[in-house]
Amino acid sequence: MPRKTVVIFGALNILWMVFAASQAFKIEIFPESKILAQIGDSISLTCSTTGCDSPSFSWRTQIDSPLNGKVINEGTKSTLTLEPVGFAHEHSYLCTATCGHDKQERGVQVDLYSFPEDPEISFSGLLEVGKPVTVTCLVRDVYPFDRLEMHLLKGDHLMKNQEFVEDTDVKALETKSLEVTFTPTNEDIGKTLVCGAKLHIDEIDFKLKEKETTKTLQVYISPRNTVISVNPSKRLQEGGSVTMTCSSEGLPAPQILWSKKLDNGNLQLLSENATLTLIAMRMEDSGIYVCEGVNLAGRDRTQVELIVQVAPRDTTISVSPSSILEEGSSVNMTCSSDGLPAPKILWRRQLNNGELQFLSENTTLTLISTKMEDSGIYVCEGINQAGKSRKEVELTIQVAPKDIQLRAIPSESVKEGDTVIISCTCGNVPQTWIILKKKAETGDTVLKSTGGEYTIHKAQLEDAGVYECESKNQVGLQLRSLTLDVKGRENNKDYFSPELLVLYCASSLIIPAIGMIIYFARRANMKGSYSLVEAQKSKV
């Protein structure tokens, strides 16, 4: 055989042997190149061979990190189990199989994700009509969260959509959420709220990478317009009966609670029915009854006061020493009132505008060192749950007259025929009598005055003189006086002047003198002579 043929044959034989050997020893790995595992799950990587009866296997990571798994070799197969899968397992794993001097290797990439639960929907509070509320759509333990997208729907309306695209090198499970604040309305009652989340990883099955949660909106209306109707009346006679009915609006329909307010302010529960009936009423049944409408959104209350009448009566006031006092003295005023329960005593003083000024809650009201300003009307009230009864007393504080003013208007010196007013006033002392008099030696004349004034019309000379004012009350008196001068008229001056008076007197002497001269002259004629001296002597 030619040498060339032998060489070719030998080469073909070697190639055949190599091919046969390669077909005899082969390695495979499953999954073939990549697996996407959910954190917390369990996965198995399987390495198997053919063409070798007793291969040896080894596993390692591409970066020589710990396997953090369990290896089981069974004949021509080796299994690496990772349980539970965590961030320490996110590597490329290599399986090496050795058969004699022959060695083969295969690798698989393990990638991780986490999307274990459906989204959660929560609210910041109850969904009350007219009150803002925040709804939160939340997804827990997401990885990788930069591939997460979330949306929130109310009915057919998209409220919010958000993609979480921030970059991070940190490997960790994240909880992501989106929030929307809205104000519920009546139209929201019965609508559905949908929270959806999607992880954008193609290798995940559709059912695993998209999740959503649906919740029907439970919208509340807090109780309102709570009202009470009372039949027959809120004021009752002892032994009578009363029926009180309460209603309240809200969603869901409020529960009705009846209570009675105790003296310490606490509420004593009486009934959970809308209607409360009380029979054979006693005085102890008087008080404040409270109705509350209650649901999950809140509560609304209203109240009514029932009075079982045994009202105060026969309210009396005793004053010691007297209701009329001198300024500076003291007085005790004691009030009593009958009724069940015993009435509370309340003292007030009536002001000028008619309002009542609170003074005391004691039975006895004491005033010390009284002044004129303490005069007035004092009111005592007996009060209990059934009503009130009142009594009044007028206190008078007397002050002696003072600050008397006596004037002549327009002046203390007037002319005959003028009008003059004699006026007397006495400060601010109440209940003071004013008496005007004209003084004279023959006796005083009491003048008919009005309000302390006496008017002289067309003054005459005889109106001149001393006028006196006497102001007095039960405590004392004061006197004032003035002198009024009335001058004669100006047009009478010519008739009563001094010259006219002298002329008048002279004329009254001349006429008798002339008569005497004529008389003695006639006698002289008869006797023949006449001597005035002699005549006077004989006269004497």
UniProtKB/TrEMBL annotation:
Membrane topology: Single-pass type I membrane protein
Pfam families tied to this protein: C2-set, I-set, Ig_3
Keywords from the UniProt entry: Cell adhesion, Cell membrane, Disulfide bond, Glycoprotein, Immunoglobulin domain, Membrane, Repeat, Secreted, Signal, Transmembrane, Transmembrane helix, Ubl conjugation
Gene Ontology, cellular component aspect: extracellular region; plasma membrane
Subcellular location as annotated: Cell membrane; Secreted
Transport listed as a keyword: no
Signal peptide range in chain numbering: 1-24
Residues passing through the membrane, by range: 501-521
Example GO BP: cell-cell adhesion
Stretches assigned to the Ig-like domain: 2-111, 223-307, 312-396, 401-485
GO molecular function, one term: integrin binding
InterPro entries, A to Z: ICAM_VCAM, ICAM_VCAM_N, Ig-like_dom, Ig-like_dom_sf, Ig-like_fold, Ig_C2-set, Ig_I-set, Ig_sub
General function of this protein: Cell adhesion glycoprotein predominantly expressed on the surface of endothelial cells that plays an important role in immune surveillance and inflammation. Acts as a major regulator of leukocyte adhesion to the endothelium through interaction with different types of integrins. During inflammatory responses, binds ligands on the surface of activated endothelial cells to initiate the activation of calcium channels and the plasma membrane-associated small GTPase RAC1 leading to leukocyte transendothelial migration.
Protein name in the entry: Vascular cell adhesion protein 1
Organism: Equus caballus (Horse)
Organism placement in taxonomy: Eukaryota, Metazoa, Chordata, Craniata, Vertebrata
Gene from which the chain derives: VCAM1
